[in-house]
Design a protein that fits this description.
heterotrimer, A mainly alpha (about 290), B alpha/beta (about 250), C mainly alpha (about 400), B: about 250 residues, Rossmann fold, six-stranded mixed beta sheet, four-stranded antiparallel beta sheet, C: mainly alpha, D-Maltodextrin-Binding Protein, domain 2, two-stranded antiparallel sheet
């Protein structure tokens, strides 16, 4: 070879590669180890607290003993409420984006707006929820106001997954249905929706997992510090797991005695997120199998 | 004299037997074309010559391939040195996200050439060799993506030639190009023959006939026939070859 | 019939398509209306005035000066451009000590006169009293009140939203608190995030990738209160010991927690971007004799730099907007920070901590909405950056 190459260069570049790769490997393992550590730390401390009483009873003695049942129920209702809002609205606007909206500036504009909505910090949603749902529409501090605020938070994700799911369906399916004389609405309802549904549901479940852990949006729209009884209607306030964790971890009469309760609550929250992830995976797998077997 | 010798090569992607028992010799400084229908293994075989398939997990090779008499899958072989000596041009133009100049200089730089004057001179030579110099000499600093598809592919050839490889592998280099660009690429290949060993995979039989000295026909992972290009296209020994080149393929 | 359904469906879809746009408009509308109200508030608490002796020539006092007067940090009028005269602070409660109940009247009907009496007696007095009591009192000069100036809010270095007689809404401590915490969070998260994303996208064996990627994505979904709680339980005491701090709740604790929270975002987006780098691009580099590392930093990273940038910017966005975790570990002292090891307070944490106590419609409430507006604009700006970057990317390729 006639290339003027310093003979040590090759050795150096191979050595550099080894050094860099080793460094990156170490850093990566460190990060994952830390993440596991956090998870493990909370799960380890929380697992000891979890028992039947903890899960099924209300807090007693000024939050220093008893369980978290009302918070579990509250979080459940908030998830249901936000799903009831975010799912239909998100689904329909996602379909609009993919199937109806004329391509070009309008879609770009709506997409930008959706992205912006997704980027707004949750505390701003909380402010808005308080100003709009609680005060302006005078829902008061209620499950309704909290669910709607949380639903807004989940909306961009549902819209985006719906739009992507519909866009990824090959045009031939639409053409095939339209060619048989079906209207656009029929095509969407009978052909496209069933195909897109698994992904939409998966997206919804994942965003609900996220909603279940949000605190800032419900701080001023719904969450109660302590309620002895369960909510009876959607105009009642409720307790919620993330807010409960915040409360027992940062304020109260006896922080020492509250620590186990905080660990237990964090444990339940993590389990919910984990369960939602697993559920989403299971849904995806189930539908994939179904589609394949057809 | 043979530049590349392959003996009893079998190659597997996982459990898929992609290449079956192939032996062939490629003479120095000639152009050899691999033809055959898609999925026949011709590209896979080509990529064995610079160990590109090493990058794909779950692959396995048996048999022996040697270049200049050295087994390139031997233990003491340095893959980066092998690849410096065996250049490659890909199906689609794939310039780096860099300037035109830096694209051509890339191979020199990653191999440790520091001499600026030398790099500048070699870049110019390579671009001239790829018949691109006149078109880009005033915009060497511009992004390579500003070039047309055909220009990009010639840039990729210049990039490969800048490190003076003794073998150039071309994997359907003109399949993504228009006829005029294709003609320019073919001209380049003809220029290279006699100076460099060129192995070209193509799905165009006319192209193989125009540029190559020898042609190998692949079918379903086997090498059906290998010989002088003229003979393959006029009087092949095998019926399968005959069927393929006459377009009577099933 | 079929046609009608189709038409109705089209209409419903179209209306619904604009939901997000409408929500954004509503958010802007409601946040802005509330926030703008702040600048219609007088400096002195509504319904009250500051009464001075007519001989005192001081014409104007800023909110900060008023606070210092009443905290008795300013004890002489010359410090605020008046005559050399000692300040006497007078609050409504002081009446009860100076006069008996009979003198004031059962319904405070004589209170106005008594205040006037006090004001006339001492030339250096500043009395914080309800305006109805002194409106027509003779010999009392009410300091003309102004509305809260924009400048004092945006450039004010003090945040005392509950100070009387005049709350101070300088947002600089909160803005700088947010910047400090986010800056250090990114400083910590960036090297780790990039290293992990490069490792996962380019170096890790498939098995490791399959294990790490879902874990990292899962951790992106863990609620922020949980991270905050972990920070409170582990990081805060750890920092307190390591640096020998009086309190462990500090900007650094917030930064560390935020860094951990921003990591999944950065890693996921950056890794996806690098995975999108075409295989042939990598092969072309390797085919020239480049090592894998040369290929990564000379080809793959330049190619996916826009995606990597998006990931980092999104991570920053997440850090800036994060509320609960920061609220739990930063100590929430609304002062201009001089060190990252001190307690400080961010914009979102301020909203979360104070909105519950701020009476709806009051100046404090409106000031918190103003913070919301600022936060909204910051995230809008960050989003536009991401959009701009990815738009440029499309143009290039």
């Amino acid at each position: 070879m006639s290339l003027p190459i310093d003979s040590s260069y090759r050795r150096r570049k191979l050595w550099l590669q080894q050094a860099v790769f080793a460094l990156f490997r170490v850093l990566s393992y460190a990060v994952v180890a830390v993440l596991f550590l956090i998870l493990g730390f909370i799960l380890f401390h929380g697992a000891g607290v979890i028992d039947w009483t903890f899960l099924t009873e209300a807090p007693t003695d000024g939050m220093t003993s008893g369980g978290i049942w009302p918070a579990i129920v509250g979080t459940f209702w908030l998830m249901v409420g936000s799903a009831l809002f975010a799912f239909p609205v998100g689904l329909i606007s996602g379909i609009y984006m993919s199937e109806y909206a004329p391509d070009g500036r309008l879609v770009a504009f709506i997409r930008t707006m959706t992205n912006n909505l997704a980027g707004i910090p949750s505390i701003v949603f909380g402010l808005f929820g308080m100003a709009f749902f609680v005060n302006y529409l005078s829902f008061g501090d209620s499950i309704l106001a909290g669910s709607l605020t949380l639903g807004l938070l989940a909306l961009p994700v549902v819209i985006r997954t719906t739009e992507d799911a519909f866009r990824d369906i090959a045009p031939s399916y639409r053409e095939g249905s339209l060619a048989l004389g079906a209207t656009k609405a029929q095509t969407i309802w009978r052909v496209l929706l069933p195909m897109a549904m698994p992904r939409v549901i998966t997206g919804l479940i994942l965003s609900l997992g996220r909603v279940s852990g949000e605190t800032a949006p419900i701080l001023f729209t719904c969450a109660a510090y302590f309620l002895p009884k369960l909510p009876e209607s959607m105009f009642d306030q409720c307790m919620a797991l993330p807010y409960h964790l915040y409360v027992v971890a940062t304020s109260g009469t006896d922080i020492e005695a509250q620590m186990p309760i905080a660990y237990g609550t964090a444990f339940v929250l993590i389990v919910i997120v984990l369960a939602m992830n697993l559920l989403a995976n299971a849904v995806r797998k189930h539908f994939e199998k179904k589609l394949k077997s057809k | 004299m043979n530049k590349i010798e392959a003996k009893n090569v079998d190659f597997y992607y996982g459990s898929f037997h992609a290449l079956k028992h192939i032996s062939l010799d490629i003479p120095q400084n000639e152009v050899v074309a691999f033809i055959g229908p898609s999925g026949c293994g011709k590209s896979t075989f080509l990529r064995l010559f610079n160990r590109m398939n090493d990058l794909i997990p779950g692959t396995r090779l048996t048999g022996q391939i040697s270049i200049d008499g050295t087994d390139i899958y031997g233990r003491s072989v340095d893959v980066d040195l092998l690849r410096r000596d065996v250049g490659m041009v890909f199906q689609r133009p794939n310039p780096f996200p860099k300037s035109i100049f830096e694209n051509v200089a890339y191979g020199l730089r990653v191999n440790g050439v520091k001499d600026r004057a030398f790099i500048a001179q070699r870049v110019e030579e390579a671009l001239k060799g790829a018949a691109l110099w006149d078109e880009v000499k005033d915009k060497l600093k511009e992004s390579a993506y500003a070039l047309s598809g055909g220009q990009q592919q010639r840039l990729c050839i210049a990039r490969a030639m800048a490190v003076e490889p003794s073998v150039l592998l071309m994997d359907e280099p003109a399949s993504a190009l228009d006829p005029i660009s294709t003609a320019k690429i073919e001209e380049l290949i003809c220029d290279l023959s006699g100076r460099t060993t060129v192995v070209i995979v193509t799905h165009s039989m006319q192209q193989a006939a125009r540029v190559s000295n020898k042609t190998a026909f692949f079918y379903l992972g086997e090498m059906v026939e290998y010989g002088e290009t003229k003979k393959i296209f006029t009087n092949p020994d095998q019926e399968a070859t005959q069927n393929y080149i006459t377009g009577r393929f099933g | 019939m079929k046609k009608w359904i189709d038409r109705i469906a089209r209409w419903v879809f179209t209306v619904s398509g604009f939901t997000t746009s409408v929500v954004i408009l509503l958010i802007i509308g409601f946040l802005f209306t509330e926030a703008a109200g702040l600048f219609r508030n007088p400096i002195v608490e509504e319904g009250y005035v500051l009464a001075l002796n007519p001989k005192n020539p001081v014409k104007e006092l800023s909110a900060e000066q008023i606070k210092q007067l009443f905290d008795e940090d300013i004890t002489n009028w010359k410090e605020v451009g008046g005559p050399d005269l000692p300040v006497r602070v007078f609050r409504l409660e002081d009446l009860d000590q100076l006069y008996t109940e009979e003198q004031l009247g059962a319904e405070y009907e004589f209170a106005g006169a008594k205040i006037a009496e006090q004001v006339q007696q001492s030339p250096g007095i500043v009395a914080f009293v309800p305006d109805v009591l002194v409106q027509e009192a003779p010999g009392v000069r009410c300091l003309p009140d102004r509305t809260i100036p924009l400048k004092d809010v945006l450039l004010g270095a003090e945040w005392y939203p509950t100070a009387t007689p005049s709350p101070i809404f300088g947002i600089l401590p909160l803005v700088s608190g947010t910047i400090w915490v986010s800056f250090f969070a990114i400083l910590i998260a960036l090297p780790f995030g990039l290293a992990v994303s490069i490792y996962l996208a380019e170096i890790a064996p498939e098995k490791v990738h399959k294990l790490f990627k879902p874990v990292i994505e899962l951790l992106g979904g863990i609620p922020s209160v949980v991270y905050g709680f972990f920070g409170l339980a582990v990081i805060v005491p750890l920092l307190q010991q390591t640096f020998g701090l009086p309190v462990g709740e500090s900007g650094l604790a917030g930064s560390i927690v935020l860094a951990i929270m921003a990591l999944p975002t950065i890693i996921t987006v950056a890794e996806d971007a690098m995975r999108n780098c075409p295989r042939t691009m990598r092969e072309a580099s390797l085919a020239l004799g480049a090592t894998r590392w040369q290929t990564i930093y000379k080809v793959v990273i330049p190619f996916s730099i826009t995606g990597i940038t998006s990931g980092v910017v999104l991570g920053i966005g997440r850090a800036i907007g994060e509320t609960m975790a920061v609220l739990m570990v930063t100590g929430n002292a609304a002062i201009l920070p001089s060190s990252i090891l001190e307690p400080l307070r961010t914009i979102p944490a301020t909203i979360a901590a104070e909105l519950g106590e701020a009476p709806a419609g009051g100046a404090h409430y409106q000031a918190l909405f103003l913070l919301g507006v600022i936060l909204f604009f910051i995230t809008l700006f960050i989003n536009s950056c991401v959009e701009f970057v990815s738009a440029r990317n499309k143009f290039k390729r």
